[in-house]
Design a protein that fits this description.
- The chain has 642 residues and is α+β, with helices and mostly antiparallel strands.
- It has 4 domains: 131 residues, no CATH class; 132 residues, Cysteine proteinases (Cathepsin B, Chain A), CATH 3.90.70.10; 161 residues, Jelly Rolls (Sandwich); 173 residues, EF-hand (Recoverin, domain 1, Orthogonal Bundle), CATH 1.10.238.
- The protein contains 18 helices and 25 strands.
- The strands form 8 sheets. The protein has a 6-stranded antiparallel sheet with strand order 5-10-6-7-8-9. Strands 15-14-17-12-19 form a 5-stranded antiparallel sheet, with no helix packed on it. The chain has a 4-stranded antiparallel sheet with strand order 11-18-13-16, with no helix packed on it.
- A hairpin with a 2-residue loop joins strand 7 and strand 8.
- The protein is elongated.
- The protein starts with 17 loop residues before the first helix and ends with a helix.
């Protein structure tokens, strides 16, 4: 056995199995219910509220908690769970050893003490996220989505829509998962209990709504559950409330249960007044849009923000915003029930941006990033350019067609909107630039919509000057003869001597000259005979290339510092004839940019020459133009080391 240590006062025991904790352990007894979920010493009420909602739908629960597991039949000391993670279902297997303190479960437990499915599910989710500690603090939405693969929406109850009761009623009928909470104003308010016994900064689950007749008037009620299993609302319609005596006895018998189980009724008006946030996880994205049930079109993309390459920050940073990952979506048909003009908002769209793995990274000090996104209508002249990022000028002149709400450090931000028929670019971002992170972007559209990641194309059309002996000027030849002598062919050292001399004559370029390694790359690109030397004609063609690339560099070096910023590298490479996907752009930044994310002239030329060489090698080896090649290990080493 191993010893698990937690910063909690008291004697910490070794991890025992359920058979050592009680005499008759059961995995599930009489079905999984909300009463099996009582919070322990871990601050994961958000997770337990989500689990409590999950028990309301046995079909959903069975997907997360595969059936036919027990401590009796085929018992092997392990249990199996399944969670949704960024577009796929992940299987998690855990042993049944659980942390205890003084002989009792330290974390979540059942009210009776002998049912262990909830404790083992919490352990499996902790394993998924790296540790129990990683589960401290969160939002029920995160659990909702990981248990269903659904998409969530958040309602600020201080700005509640007039039809919110109907929205909640409809969502519950559609078996959506709902949670609620009371915001805190400072750290001291966390889990502070109000005079009516509601807990601030604590995650509750919503388990039902009903409308009853009281004293001849209709009253809207909502049922809420505290995952602590105790501490209940003491206001109107709560347990022991006299209001229950004013309704029909049959209605009271069906709804009212006087039990200290953490679940209680309250008037919906009191709910709006006392709680500040309502979360709804829609199991199907159309739950809240209409009565007709239909399947939406779903697109999912995984991407990254990489410092110096694709981490451009929000619109407050126009110099870098355009370098963020971009995704195109074409809305070609109005909603099925829309009868107006396609120029009016007629296509329902739900966009969800989720940051990945942040809980797992808590242990290395990585918190949630503030994230958001914006959608822009693409004009006709840019609609065919799906392999090139929309540039800086476009975003500076174009207002967004829709956007997420205020940037916030949640795992996911989601926005439902209606847009006219057309093509749009979606830009997911962090608030600040240069923040590394991985994300998952989900797009739901009522009608089928084409979507793609912009810049997911890799191709090259570099400048290839055609040079003959007649094109070699007398001055160029004379310089060679002066510096390297009367040679038929020159090596990398000779190239360095001549080209640095020529480079020094350019007054608009600030450079310390080429390193010998860059010159070796140049020779490798132009040397088709494998001699590691170049003829005078090849040198002239190479110099014309360098002049072309120098002009591109000077254009990017707007402050004449002798460097370009790494986020300008994408434009410079494109001007040089290279279209590269985000992954390659990220590798280029890591390899060629300095720690301050700048690239000098030598590094820029080295990068371009290396790219030219690799593209040329690939094209030679791809004899059938299939876009793929097959190499032996020696061939691979020769092609990459050369």
């Amino acid at each position: 056995m191993v010893t698990l240590v937690f910063p909690i006062q008291g004697r910490i025991q070794r991890l025992p199995s359920p058979e050592e904790i009680c005499t008759d352990p059961q995995f599930i007894e009489d079905g999984a219910t909300r009463g099996d979920i009582c919070q322990g010493a871990l601050g994961d009420c958000w997770l337990l509220a989500a689990i409590a909602c999950l028990t309301l739908d046995q079909n959903l629960l069975a997907r997360v908690l595969p059936e036919n597991q027990s401590f009796q039949k085929d018992y092997a000391g392990i249990f199996h769970f399944r969670f949704w993670q960024y577009g796929e279902w992940v299987d998690v297997v855990v042993d049944d050893r659980l942390p205890t303190k003084n002989g009792r479960l330290l974390f979540v437990h059942s009210a009776e003490g002998n049912e262990f499915w909830s404790a083992l599910m919490e352990k499996a989710y902790a394993k998924l996220n790296g540790s129990y500690e990683a589960l401290t603090g969160g939002n029920s939405i995160e659990g909702f989505e990981d248990f269903t693969g659904g998409i969530s929406e958040v309602y600020d109850l201080r700005k509640a829509p007039a039809d919110l009761y109907q929205i909640v009623q409809k969502a519950l009928k559609a078996e959506s998962l709902l949670g609620c909470s009371i915001d805190i104003t400072n750290a001291y308010d966390t889990e502070d209990i109000t005079s009516r016994k509601l807990v601030k900064g604590h995650a509750y689950s919503v388990t039902g709504v009903e409308e009853v007749i009281s004293k001849g008037k209709p009253v809207q009620l909502i049922r809420v559950r505290n995952p602590w299993g105790e501490v209940e609302w003491t206001g109107p319609w709560g347990d022991n409330s006299p209001e229950w005596n004013s309704v029909d006895p049959k209605v009271k018998a069906a709804l009212y249960k006087q039990k200290d189980d953490g679940e209680f009724w309250m008037a919906f008006s009191d709910f709006i007044t006392n709680y500040t946030q309502l979360d709804i996880c829609n199991l199907t994205p159309n739950t809240l849009t209409g009565n007709e049930q239909y399947q939406w079109n779903v697109s999912l993309y995984n991407g990254s923000w990489v410092r110096g390459s694709t981490a451009g920050g929000c619109q407050n940073y126009p110099e870098t915003f355009w370098t963020n990952p971009q995704f195109r979506i074409t809305l070609s048909e109005p909603d099925h029930d829309y009868k107006g003009s396609p120029q009016d908002p007629c296509c329902t769209l739900v966009v969800g941006l989720m940051q990945k793995y942040r809980r797992r990274q808590k242990k290395i000090g990585e918190d949630l990033l503030s994230i958001g996104f914006a959608l822009y209508k693409v004009p006709k002249e840019l609609q065919t350019q799906t392999d090139i990022h929309v540039g800086k000028d476009f975003f500076q002149k174009t207002a967004s067609a829709a956007r997420s709400d205020t940037y916030i450090n949640l795992r996911e931000v989601c926005k439902r909107t209606k847009l006219p028929v057309g093509e749009y670019v979606i830009v997911p971002t962090t608030f600040d630039p240069f923040k590394n992170g991985d994300f998952c972007l989900r797009v739901f559209s009522e009608k089928a919509a084409k979507s793609l990641e912009v810049g997911d194309v890799t191709k090259a059309d570099p400048y290839e000057p055609q040079v003959t002996e007649k094109d070699v000027s007398g001055d160029f030849k004379a310089l060679f003869l002066k510096l390297v002598g009367d040679k038929d062919e020159v090596n990398a050292k000779d190239i360095q001597t001549v080209f640095n001399k020529l480079l020094a004559k350019r007054t608009n370029l600030k450079s310390n000259g080429f390193t010998i390694m860059t010159c070796k790359e140049m020779v490798s690109l132009m040397d088709m005979q494998g001699t590691a030397t170049l003829t005078l004609t090849e040198c002239k063609a190479l110099w014309l290339k360098i002049q072309k690339y120098a002009d591109i560099f000077c254009k990017a070096d707007t402050d004449k510092s002798g460097t370009m910023d790494s986020y300008e590298m994408r434009t410079a490479l494109n001007d040089a004839g290279f279209q590269l996907n985000n992954q390659i752009q990220e590798i280029i930044t890591k390899r060629y940019a300095s720690s301050d994310l700048t690239i000098n002239f030598d590094s820029f030329i080295s990068c371009i020459i290396r790219l030219e060489t690799l593209f040329k090698m690939f094209n030679i080896l791809d004899k059938d133009n299939h876009g793929n090649i097959k190499l032996t290990l020696p061939e691979w080493l020769c092609s990459t080391v050369a």
